[in-house]
Amino acid sequence: MNTEEQQLTATNEEYGEGQIQVLEGLEAVRKRPGMYIGSTGERGLHHLVYEIVDNSIDEALAGYCTHIEVEIEPGDIITVRDNGRGIPVGMNEKLGLPSVTVVLTVLHAGGKFGGGGYKVAGGLHGVGSSVVNALSDYLEVEISREGHIYAQRFEKGNIVTDLKVIGDTDETGTFIRFKPDATIFTDTTVYDYEILEKRLREQAFLNAGLRISLTDRRDPDNIKSDTYCYEGGISSFVEYLNKIRGNALHEEVIHISISDGDSVAEAAFQYTDSYNESILSFANNMHTIDGGTHEQAFKNGLQRIFNDYARKYKMLKDNDSNLKGDDVREGLAAVVSVKLTDAQFESQTKAKLGNTAIGKLVTRLLNEKLVPFLDENPSVARAILDKAINAARVREAAQKARENARKKSTIGSTRMPEKLADCIWRDAERTELYIVEGDSAGGSAIQGRDRNFQAILSMWGKMLNVEKARIDKVMDNEKLLPMIIALGCGIGEEFDLSRLRYGKVIIMADADVDGSHIRTLLLTFFFRYMRPLIEGGHVYIAQPPLFKVFKGKQVRYAFSDPERDKYIEELGGNADVQRYKGLGEMDPDQLWETTMDPAFRTMYQVRLDDFHEADDIITILMGDKVEPRKEFIEKNAQYVTNLDI
Known about the structure:
Blueprint: H1 3-14, H2 27-31, H3 34-37, H4 42-61, E1 67-73, E2 77-82, E3 91-92, E4 97-98, H5 99-105, H6 128-134, E5 136-145, E6 148-155, E7 158-159, E8 164-168, E9 173-180, H7 193-206, E10 211-216, E11 224-228, H8 234-241, E12 254-260, E13 263-271, E14 278-283, E15 286-287, H9 293-312, H10 325-329, E16 332-339, H11 356-376, H12 378-408, E17 420-421, E18 432-437, H13 439-448, E19 454-459, H14 471-476, H15 481-487, E20 504-508, H16 513-529, H17 531-535, E21 539-542, E22 547-551, E23 554-558, H18 561-570, E24 576-579, H19 588-596, E25 603-605, H20 611-622, H21 626-636
């Protein structure tokens, strides 16, 4: 028997009954936490809070909870208190445990599986509380119910104390206190106040009249606290969204709702004079980031209804093409919220809704409520349609420019931009394009690169801020068009990632204010017109060094002030320091070895974790409204590093 046969036999012998593992209780959650909360990074850490708060929200949906209090205690311990009915404490006959213990220790146990506890609930899978318990160093629960206060403690999902009465009360509700397990959340166990603030404010918008408070007690000298309560519900949400966007085309937010049995669908929206859309969809108060049947029905319904209206009132002529979805949604800010029994989400993180019936209810909502609204408010309808028709005209005018750009952008074309120094290889998985500002820096990059796989596109001056321009202006822009042609995959609706000519698109700009502005302009362009480029992980930001620290023939390159000081000390304390204010100050060899050599360079990959958050930030920073940008700068100025620029 040869060695390979021996290894195969050994492998077959090892894989038997003894290798089949059965994970009991919450052991499966601790073994594979990502399956239940998405990740063990910052997102998963905050998801623990969402799961507990969502249970309190479900009490509000059932009509029993009016106030939810969330606190961050020193040590990043989380407490959540509500004034709902309190988790049941009676014995579960099947398991021989108190019901609250079952809820916190058994997966798929809860009041959301048709037993009548909840008609509508975000916690579809019934694993939220037990998962939080499993992934916490400890969790303590107090239940106020039936005249008594009950308490129990768990550690890493295991029962430490039995449920016992610790006092009497006339109130009802649930109080949970937990500390995330640092052996699970190895990246960080520190909670971000702003992340929690955004989520809790969102929930207050979605539940009109519900009061939610958030308090941060980690710094006793600087306790932060906010309370959110919005009687206007999702109409207030749309008004909040439009604070950072353009000027409203119609004064009042359009708010429509419909119900059918236990299912409810409502939508609130308002158009502005901006060029971008923002649609947030929710199912049972869960933000469906990837949309679903409810969001798609809303988009389809809007397009159909506005086209029908335009035809009915002769705003579109017989030979005019129908308005496309993008035309109808230009400048739209909308919130679509549905509530339903047996919600079908794609996963525990509830990113996409799959119920077909709720899509039909949203279609009914638009047919029965929006159509008569438009007939009764012709000035609003015409303001919206004037904008949509103008958007369609601009789109059609830009179509020819797109066609011309497409013809020029095929691989191997002899009509590549003059400023492009292309590479030899044609395999997109192995090639990369450096976008460099300025002829001087571009010249150094061209001389210093490996021309087999590195292409250089030199730009000059600041490019168009696409946040304030429509697609026709983008296609005509002399600084953007060369980049569109070089990448070869088109823009907007016609973007085709399969035609991308370079696997890495690397922004390489100076380490100063102008360089930062150029990076922001480019990222805005990629986000608005080539978003799949970011979503596919193709966009990078080069990190040229800030300092050259040298003494004699000894040279160090530093990327920060602390690193500079460390190298000065290493070289004896009297080393010379050169501050690079521009890429053009480096000769080709220096640029290669510090910024372009794959073996030693440092680059940041641009990722898109939350589309709506990125959309808001870009709108604030690059949009027309000055006040939101001023507020953002004042709020975040403390985080800017003190660079010598």
